[in-house]
Design goal:
- By secondary structure, this protein is of the alpha+beta class.
- Helix content is 35%, strand content 37%.
- It has 9 helices and 13 strands.
- Strands 6-5-4-3-2-13-12-11-10-9-8 form an 11-stranded antiparallel sheet. Strands 1-7 form a two-stranded antiparallel ribbon.
- Helix 2 packs antiparallel against helix 3.
- The longest helix is centred in the middle third of the chain and has 22 residues.
- The radius of gyration is 22 Å and the shape is globular.
Amino acid sequence: MKRSMIIMLLMMIAMTMSAQSSGVKISAKYQKGDNMLYRMTGTTTIMGKNIDMVGETRYVVTEASPNGYIIENTVEKIESNAEPSDIVGRMLNMTQESIKGVKVILTTDADGKVTGIKNIKDVQDASGAFIDKMLDELMAQMPAGASQMITKDKLKASVAGQITEKNLVNSMLMQPSPFTLNGLTIGTGSTDMGMDATGMKMKNTYTLTAPDGSKVNVASKSEMTKEDMKKLIIEQVKNIMPEQAEMIEQNIDMVMESDAFKMEKNQVADYEFGNNGWLKNVSFTATSSSVGQNSDMKCKIELVESNR
C-alpha cells in the first residue's frame, strides 16, 4: 500500500514537471449565448495624482463555430474620482466618456485568440470624435508659439493613424483581459515578445502557478535596444513634427542622452481561469516611464456575472 502511494506521488510529480516543461495550451471553451460581465477596480498614479477607477465590461458570444467565435464587447460602466479641475482629470473623463457604450465586435480563432474587429469603422468613427475633443483640450494648454510647431491637424492625423485594426488587436493581446492568453502554449520559464500600443517591444515571461494552466503568472518588461529607441523616437517625431525630423535624426545620440526620452515599462499579472475557459480574474501591477513622466497602476478584473 505504501509502495503504491509512493508510485502515485511520483507519477503526479512527473506529470506536473512535464506540463511545466512542455507547456499547457490556453484554449477557450465558449458557447453561443455566453454572457459575461467583468468588473475592473484599480488605482492609477498619473503625474503625481492618485486616481481610483471602476468599470464594467460585458462580453456576449453571438456566434460559435469550429473555426472561432464572434464576441460583442461593450463597456457599460466606467467611473473615476478624477478631478475635472485639472488637465489630467479632464483627459481621463473624456477618455471614459468616449469608450462608454461603444460596441466592439471581436473575431477570434478556435482558441479564442482575438484576430480582428468586425466593426472597425464604427470604432474608428467613435475614436475620431474623442480625438477632436482631446486635442482641443491639449492645444489650449500649449505654451504660446508651440501651436506653430505642432498643429491640431498634424496631431490628429498622427493619433488617428495609430487607430488601425492591427494596432488595436495587438494592444488587446498585450493588456490583461479575458482573451490575452488565449491560444498560447505556456510552460514555466517560457517567453515570447510582443509590442504595446506605443510601439514598445515587451518581453513576457510565463510561470504556471497551477500545473493545469488554470493559474498563470506573466511578468512583462520592455525590451528595447538603443537602436530600437532611436527608431521609435524618430518615427514619432516624423508623425507629429515632420519638419523637425531631420534635425532630430541628426542629433539623435544627444537626444538619447536626455532622460526626457527615456521609456520603460514593467508589468506583472496573475490570471485564474474557470473550467469553461472564461477568465475568473486577473490582478496586475504596472509601472511606466515615458517622456519624463512616471505612472503606476494596480488593478483587478473579475467575473461578477455569468449565465453559465
